[in-house]
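TEACHING EXERCISE
Course module: macromolecular assemblies
Task: Read the component lines below, then compare them to the predicted structure of the full complex.
Student: A.B.
Group: 4
Components provided:
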Amino acid sequence: MTERNGENGRITRRQLLKAGALVGGGALLGQAGRLLASAQEVAQSPAVQYPLAQAENQLYSSCLMCNTGCGIKVKVLDGVAAKIDGNPYNPFNLVPHVSYKTAPHQVAGVDAPLCPKGQAGLLSVYDPYRLRVVLKRAGPRGSNKWRTIPFDQAVREIVDGGKLFADIGEDRHVPGLRELWALRDPKVAKEMDAFVRRIRAEKDPAKKQALVREFQQTFRDHLHTLIDPDHPDLGPKNNQFLYFWGRQKAGRTEFARRFVQESFGSVNFHGHTTVCQGSLYFACKAMSEQYEFDEKDGKMKWTKGRKFYWQADTEHSEFVVFVGASPFEGNYGPTNRVPRLTEGLATGRLKFAVVDPRLSKTAAKAWKWIPARPGTEGALALAVIRWILDHQRYDARYLRNANKAAAEEDGEPTWCNATWLVKLEKGRPEGFLRASDLGLPVQKRSQEVKGKRVEYEFDPFVVLRDGRPVPFDPYDEQNPVEGDLLVDTTLNGIRVKSGLQLLGEEARRHSLQEWAEICGVRAEDIEELAREFTSHGKRAAADIHRGVSQHTNGFYNVWAWMTLNVLIGNLDWKGGMASAKVYDPSGEKEGQPFNLKELHPKRTTPFGVSIIRHETKYEESTLFRGYPAKRPWYPLSSDVYQEIVPSIGDAYPYPIKIAFLYMGSPAYSLPAGHTTIEVLKDPNKLPLFVAVDITVGETSMYADYILPDLSYLERWEFQGSHPNMTVKVQPVRQPVIPPVPETVRVFGEEMPISLEAFLLACAERLGLPGFGKDGFGPGQDLRRPEDFYLKMVANVAAGDRPGDAVPDASDEEVRLFLQARRHLPKSVFDPEKWKRAVGEAWWRKVVYVLNRGGRFQEYQKAFKGEQLANQYGTLVSIYSEKVAKTKNSMTGKPFPGLPAYIPAPRDALDRPVEDEKAGYDLHLITYREVSHTKSRTGTNYWLLALLPENFVLVHRQDAERLGLKDGDLVRVTSASNPDGMWPVLDGHSKPMVGRVRVTEGIRPGVVAFSLGHGHWAYGSVDLVIDGKVLKGDARRGRGIHANAAMRVDPVLKNVCLSDPAGASAVFYDTRVKLVREAS
Amino acid sequence: MPRYAMVVDLDRCMGCRACMEACKVENNTPTAAFWMYVFRFEEGEYPNTYIWFMPRPCMHCDNPPCAKVCPVGARYKREDGLVATDWDRCIGCRYCEVACPYGVNYFNWKEPVRNYYLDWGERDVRRVTNGQTPPYRNPDLDRPYGEEKRRVAGGGRLKGVVEKCTFCVQRVEEGLQPACVANCPAFALHFGDLEDPQSSVSQVLGRKHSWRLLEELGTEPRVYYVGAHPAHPESRQIEEVKARV
Ligand code: SF4
Ligand code: SF4
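Instructor-supplied answer key:
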């Protein structure tokens, strides 16, 4: 660039002017244009320099102060990150974002927005309480006594086991990884897995037993590798090694999965989904199930439901109802959603309603605030559904389409099963009516599976068309089939109803007035909401989040609200509901150079039921002994975070011997998280507990070892996207500053201590396949993190099909790439090694992607006329026979197969929990202050500057009744925590006390606190390390964290309340008391 | 010579305080000092409750009462409209602080430190940056600004001077937006030249009715507000940031 005028390469005014023309092709400057425009007006004083505006001092990456993961531009001076701003290439930060073709020099002067957390990130990274070396406990678990040990010693002890704590008087043998790596032959694992499938599929108990005996015979030489040969479906001893995490993004997920599942062979690899919005994910998973041939089972079934959800394309919506969602504070909001919403408000394009018991910052701008009673979200949705059905305000044309051909005829990208006929068994809707039920023919089909032809049957579904049954295939592209919407009839002696008919019956269980009373809102408000929702065609949306899903009835609340979107047929339409699309880094797409799963010399098949009993039916297991099960099974969900630790405690379905926790803090984050402490601090329940953390946190404080990790400015990840993001993206997180932890040597390579270094070192010591020399296959080593992650970057660069690759970086860009990394040590940036990881052919493309902080589709490509270009594009279910045929493992009763209102809260045995009768008269909820993210920001000094301590929000009426005023201290107590205490250590508890803020902005009877404060570790208390006291800083522990008041399940007693279907950990169904404390 | 001004769009502002944080990080302001401050207000009774937000930087008045009372000419109005403090002249008498009706001045009680929230000198802190200089300010701020070459920003400000929003003079002179403007996710803040009819400030002011804070005092602020509420007598300030961390 010649404009990079002369001396010192500083950005000139001319260049900024010029850049204007290159952003979005001239006319469409958008906000980037605005950010540049003023530059034209500003006089330049030729003598000055501003190093932060020079491309050579900027690196693009991805924020992780919250999981939105906005694009960031990190400005580095003297090797230290000096300022963080937003990445203008990234559509999370700018609308429209800067064209991907723009050279980095041209946007050096454009700082895109970031939320307060993002900007304050520096003080989370340069936090004096960060760990640089490995800690091993020097007292009982949780005693806060540590000693520093060499990395190699930690690896040796964790892999080899032994009497590891003899020096502090614990004379017990601690198992090492080697001991649990019992089944090592991938071939045997595969055969066992197939056999176990047969055992599970056998319904007859006697035959099941016979199969177990046959299994024992077949694998008699390998029975010692199993947890329990009498229950082969528990899987091998390898499963007694557990890896779980709080926040783990793509990249690290694949890396860790390679270790835990593909090489070590444990099934226990679990995330945190249910503590966020499990029921939102799993209700949408149920809605997105497809009826397809399954290769493993050799037949057709409901499968491939996506663990995902939809959000509104707020950039084009005319009306949105946000339910239990506050995009101005959380909800992937700032920086991503806010500009799209505020632009809509400012131009008059958009109005929105907010359903939330608290007057959130989003509700502050709402056309209507509906403070419904928490837990009645499903009732409200059904009320709206009722009104829509009563007034026929649904999109009948869309709903009638029963298959793909019919949808295509109407130009609809999706279709639903509103018209499909459902059979009633003893009055209860269960399976779909099939052609064979009516004596109509069944289709014979066949498919190639691994070189073999497999024959199978397809029994068509049926709709009624003008009173006549019509069989059809949902994916038929030739023969459009439409159905009658409301059907209640008998065919061939079988009572059938259409899905929409069944939905109407659920919605008509109550009158509008009754529904309004249940929700505690005015019926007129419901009517107005319903009218508005159905007055904008497809440019209206119901956008929901945690407030809907984190209840015992979350799954059905979510389903009801999402069904509203289906009723107006807004999926994949501009202004309607969108779903996330990313450039896939895995290498599984055609044209991508590195398929990381296949690049494994000895990949194994983990099998057996997981410790959280996910995606598996109790009835199919050999543990089935009638109802209730000892603990709940979760056939419709996965990543059931709250079940992990209590299941370890109960050793159900088997004991866990070694657990690795990565970037997670269940003790702090979970509702009733205090119950986990009891288990974690007991070495008899969990013999070896290793945490990977950047500091000593609320949960890692109970670990045996803490491995220091890299912060988000020091490591690799692929941030992915969010449902509201209509542009296809893949933001890349990459090292931008020198690592804080110490450097160690693994596989002969220098690298900072980190999750990767730890796993690589364990693999090296174990001799685990898939790592080290020839780790990817002959001649391809996996010795360094970049050997893995740069291949993923290359896959992103390649795109999702041949011909989709990014251009090669120019010489000038390669120079910039090297120059901007001049401060990084060889232990993380060695250009030669980096290049070797992807080869000459991909190197410049990798540079191109990294120079922009990821890959981002051009703005214009995200839309196709009135539709979104990145589509969901298939069948969506408002009725699910799969759900209807699944049983609650505690009661033996089947789950409803469609949206319904189930009053909350309920315990594990499905009985109401009625603590209000015991005088707990206030309903506790939580919220997000925009400047905080659950467990990891409450200790950031720049963020504490904005909110040194959080509040307990109390309505004025309640405050008057209780004699409370602003600033009073109150303790939060509940039926399961009547003392209002965090039992942190033996003999040391932290009371749940916070300051009252009296407000008119909350529903009377509801109290709230924001998440992120009230720490009892994370640098807020003294630690003893190597005999010396490291002083804690009390500023870091201020405010209240009242999760321990949340209701413990009265049946299970060591876990919070949970949604039996969607597995959500319940945040919003607890009744509490506020007890005044002396100030 | 440009005539700089800021326009704050209250219809867009959603009170996130990113601008407050951006200012703090960019300018390394002392604890409890917010050169940019965002008020949050609540009014009405449930369920007819409203909350609204009002960012408040220095008004950079055309008729600045602070400059008038400054006995040593440290506080002055620049030709481009910025109201600045010359650190070399300020004697810390705090007259300006008293004279300003908007409460935007902060007396500097302590020696400037590298980061007011942490003692970066401590070994524990330095070790996380591997002994490097930690981020405390933009190191190029310590230099003369404007035609008149006076030190009005940066690490040069001392104990015993009064400081306030500079409209990020270090950025503006380089052709960049003030940090608060660049970082606002709602695009509620506009900054630019009133002389230029194409500038976003001119455009917004041309389109929307605007008002200024305490207009009746004749201070002639360079900060304009558009949209929503002017402050309401029954508005209650909420979530006030006052405590020292
Ligand atoms: S919303 Fe804020 S904290 Fe979250 S990723 Fe974006 S900038 Fe970072
Ligand atoms: S950053 Fe923007 S939206 Fe947030 S408080 Fe400041 S002006 Fe308002």
